[in-house]
Amino acid sequence: MVKTRVIVKPNASHAEVIAPSTPQDMMIVRVKAPAKDNKANEAVCKELARWANVAPSSVNVVNGHTARIKTIEFKTLDTLEVFSSKEGKP
User: Fold this and answer.
1) For residue 75, is it within any domain?
2) Is there a domain that residue 41 lies in?
3) String of b and e for 1-31 (b: at least 16 CB within 10 Å)?
4) Is 32 part of a structural domain of the chain?
């Protein structure tokens, strides 16, 4: 299980995950969904699941439900799996 903090940008023109360039930085997740009625949180989980190549049910917002900075939990991965598989990939 991995927990990480992300910055969410709702109402974006396109959905994407921007990986941190240094260990101190946070991931940025852009989603098209509005920050209303939990739609952005659901979109963040789906986008991160697509990015990490895991089932959407294994990604949850555990803190920051109404904030732009959120704590996300990947239930089925460890830290090395999440970040080493993304090295050198856009």
Assistant:
1) yes
2) yes
3) ebebebbbbbebeebebbeeeeeeeebebbb
4) yes
What are the pLDDT digits (tens) for 8-53?
Answer: 999 999 999 998 888 788 999 999 999 999 999 999 999 999 998 8
The predicted structure's pLDDT at residue 77:
64
- Which residues does 34 contact at the CB level (< 8 Å), separation at least 6? 10, 11, 40
User: Contact, 15 vs 47, CB < 8 A?
Assistant: yes
15 domain residue, yes or no: yes
The count of domains in the chain is 1
The CATH number of residue 71's host domain is: 3.30.1200.10
- Which helix (H) or strand (E) segment holds residue 55: the answer is none
In this prediction the pTM is 0.82
pLDDT bracket for residue 87 (50, 70, 90): low
Query: In angstroms, rounded to a whole number, what is the distance separating the alpha carbons of residues 75 and 37?
Result: 24
- Beta partners for residue 55, in sequence order: none
